[in-house]
UniProtKB/TrEMBL annotation, chains A, B:
Its cofactor is pyridoxal 5'-phosphate. It comes from the Eukaryota. This is Aromatic-L-amino-acid decarboxylase. PROSITE patterns: DDC_GAD_HDC_YDC. Pfam families: Pyridoxal_deC. Keywords: Lyase, Pyridoxal phosphate.
Length: 507, 507
């Protein structure tokens, strides 16, 4: 394919994406395909000779589109959001278009240098302590990794490196493998699956300590676990605190946990994968008080900050431990600029690096600080609105509400809520997933798409109500009538909005 | 940014990329910026309010472009190639445009299913043993990972899982941490830095055994290392064999190493990161004879198969060991389709997954098997042509030549070749890097860009010659005259070709 054909193909793809987003609200959020559907639509072998790009794009529409779950539908409320914005998409495109690999400074200086500056911008946007930033005097710094899973694991390796070195310096007779066999890590049982996985990957038992009723890991629970383990000859090494847990978006208290970790010389890693983006708004920063006690901090702009996956921001107070854990030098990678620009390959698992800083730059430039704050606040407001709707119906109870996530259930036996979840997801008009809060089965309702508006929340709530009605018929006539009125109001709003779009299109 | 603005911005970006590639041959391959250049061009804080996309694109041109190393310049001969093709760029764009995250089958069925089929296509393209493929009856299968570094590390973890389980079944009194502390891995000292890093990441000492003069790990060396380690109470667990080493593209002999690993119950991983793409051509498949002895196999379509970074293909004979090493289940990830479609998150480090199969599909469809074979053969031919050129000048010696990589040096002391490398890279017309072959300092000349033609190899050789002339002036007048003629011929060719491009553009 020559550059002329690329111009045509690329522009057709741009239109395809734009068309997709203009019609996404009308699509059922979940696909109707059955496992194995795609294998039946494709030949068993690659084609011998090439096909035209027009054929390829038609196949995308015929084969791929029916098998997509529409994460950016305003009626997608599962998991947590994954970010999407047009500036980030163009950033990805240019990054692929340049197609360099930033395996060292000289391999493309702009790759390393834009990342250095972007991680400073981002750190300032969140008001992180200065010592985490690349622009600080000390050994701290920030880097873009691929995912929170990677980061939690990398933090664990750095913690291990630090602890083993420290103990061997104190007692040179100790065997490295003996120390490693005794290290232990901690997080709450509300932490993401990736935290447990980090323990598996790094051969360090990850103790998942019981959170309290609010989903938080308390100081007393952590202290007790540390005491027990030390009594049993184990060596506490790594704590992962969560700011915004996956089940309910609960926040561990860093001012409680931090001093314990510092005193016990345990590496404290902060996983703020989803909720970290909220710290762009000053009113939420109280939730990260005590962050200065931590050794590493992570949040995912690719979740809630409009930067497409993957873009996971990691800062460390002292990059030395990463570099020492990972540094393997080779002649073909000779590094001529030590100290002037970080060699990020020593901070991560892989050697190669994509130009992820570009999409982050595009988003920060085109949205600006205010645009990002507006996005966060709007989504929190929508979640609050949903919470209100649920709270008005006595058949339901709101279990938790934090940031853009509400968990709720039908009062009574768990099986009622399970039924509701199944009925709703089977209909594919909205997508929600299960959760557990304080031992109870709940439905998680996350505001995910940047396209979500009040009318979409209304739509989703009506959908939930209509299915709940079949499980727990409304006895309170007044409630039902109210809900009918809301329903009509929301349909009118939707139609009006649709008409507006239609008119704008026909301009 | 709304979808209309995205149409404009996206199409402008497509044109920007196309323009870049149409002018890439004329650009100095290495940038002239100094470390820290970019920090001076950007504000210290993110902008408060948003900027227009036109401003952003101008800034790309002003700030980013001068700091790129042009990996796809036909005069880039450093490292190994990183792949680039227009179909893959559009694949990346659409993947970002859809913006789903394939963290489970239901999270976007097309993501998992296209990957399953593409890994079958790719395995058939390389003629891998059936048992590695997803479409086989057994427990084998293929997955796209991010990099060979990740794959080598994941292979190591699976090997560890398998070995620990096997030993604990034999002897339930053994302690897991005691076994883990005794495991040891092997590769040759010619293996990529990522292999050593995998050992660091996985807390398993990676013994880098001396390769022979041809850069291969021999059976006797491996056997001796295993014997020694077993005598010292260690447990051999993992061998990484290289098909196409980084320094010289040497090939370990799997028919030699494989039976040893099988007999000793050591996991054999094959790292064919660069050269694996060549097995698309039947004439090179003799180099992977014995692959059936291996437990896992990896090559990077993102190196030599026209699929943009990242796309690292991994197959395992038995996926059970991956799943057992990584599986952490959660209620919000409830898996309803076990057995019908693999849950790839249990095969990898991260939870989230991009739609990398899409760009692979685009490349295989638009190039076809023949297009890929043509690309590989053309690049090997160009390397052979370069080898010929070097061989004609008595001041030089060709040290190795394999696939698209030639290593060479100035006869005599290493310092001559070192000088040559420095002079050439300082001029920035071409980019080559240092290597070491059989103990000697060499220059690695890799054919990297898909745009590279014979005239570019001529250009690069003239550039090397012109600088060599200043270090070792030619005594052989005839040689110099010949080389002058070649030089003129190549300049004429270049001008003619440029004229042709100009004419085509003005049509």
């Amino acid at each position: 394919m020559d550059s002329q054909e690329f111009r045509e193909f690329g522009k057709a793809a741009v239109d395809y994406i734009a068309d997709y987003f203009e019609t996404i609200r009308e699509r059922p959020v979940l696909p109707s395909v059955k496992p194995g559907y795609l294998g039946d639509l494709l030949p068993k072998e690659p084609p011998q000779t090439g096909e035209s790009w027009q054929d390829v794009l038609q196949d995308v529409d015929r084969i791929i589109m029916p098998g997509l779950t529409h994460w950016h539908s305003p009626r997608f409320h599962a998991y947590y959001p994954t970010a999407h914005s047009f500036p980030a998409v163009v950033g990805e495109m240019l990054s692929a278009g340049f197609g360099c690999v930033g395996l060292s400074w000289i391999a493309s200086p702009a790759y390393t240098e834009l990342e250095v500056v972007m991680m400073n911008w981002l750190g300032k946007l969140l008001d992180l302590p200065e010592e985490f930033l690349n622009c600080s005097e000390g050994p701290g710094g920030g880097i873009i990794q691929g995912s929170a899973s990677e980061v939690t694991f990398i933090g664990l390796l750095a913690a291990k490196e630090k602890k083993v070195k420290a103990l061997m310096e104190l007692n040179p007779d100790l065997k490295e493998s003996d120390i490693k066999g005794k290290l232990v890590a901690y997080a709450s049982d509300q932490s993401n699956s990736s935290v447990e996985k980090a323990g598996l990957l790094g051969s360090m038992p990850m103790r998942l300590l019981p959170a309290n009723a609010e989903g938080k890991l308390t100081a007393s629970t952590l202290l007790e676990a540390i005491r027990q383990d030390k009594n049993n000859g184990l060596i506490p090494c790594y704590v992962v605190a969560c700011l915004g847990t996956t089940p309910t978006c609960a926040f561990d208290d860093l001012e409680e946990l931090g001093p314990i970790c510092n005193k016990e010389e345990i590496w404290l890693h902060v996983d703020a994968a989803y909720a970290g983006s909220a710290f762009a708004c000053p009113e939420y920063r109280y939730l990260m008080k005590g962050v200065e006690f931590s050794d590493s901090f992570n949040f995912n702009p690719h979740k809630w900050m409009l930067v497409n996956f993957d873009c996971s921001a990691m800062w460390v107070k002292n990059a030395k431990y990463l570099v020492e854990a990972f540094n393997v030098q080779r002649i073909y990678l000779k590094d001529q600029h030590k100290g002037l620009a970080p060699e990020y390959r020593h901070w991560q698992i892989s050697l190669g690096r994509r130009f992820r800083a570009l999409k982050l730059w595009f988003v920060l430039k085109i949205y600006g600080v205010e645009g990002i704050q507006k996005h966060i606040r709007h989504q929190v407001d929508l979640a609050k609105y949903f919470e209100e709707l649920v709270g008005r119906d006595k058949r339901f109870e709101v279990c938790t509400s934090s940031m853009g996530l509400v968990t709720f259930r039908l009062r009574g036996n768990d099986s009622l809520t399970q039924q509701l979840l199944e009925k709703v997801d089977d209909r594919k008009h909205i997508f929600v997933v299960a959760g557990r809060s304080d031992g109870k089965f709940v439905i998680r309702f996350a505001v995910c798409s940047r396209l979500t508006e009040k009318r979409d929340v209304d739509f989703s709530w009506e959908e939930l109500l209509s299915q709940a009605e079949e499980i727990v018929p409304s006895k309170n006539k007044i409630n039902t009538e109210l809900s009918d009125k809301r329903s009509i109001a929301s349909i009118e709003l939707t139609d009006a909005a649709r008409e507006k779009i239609r008119m704008e299109k026909s301009k």
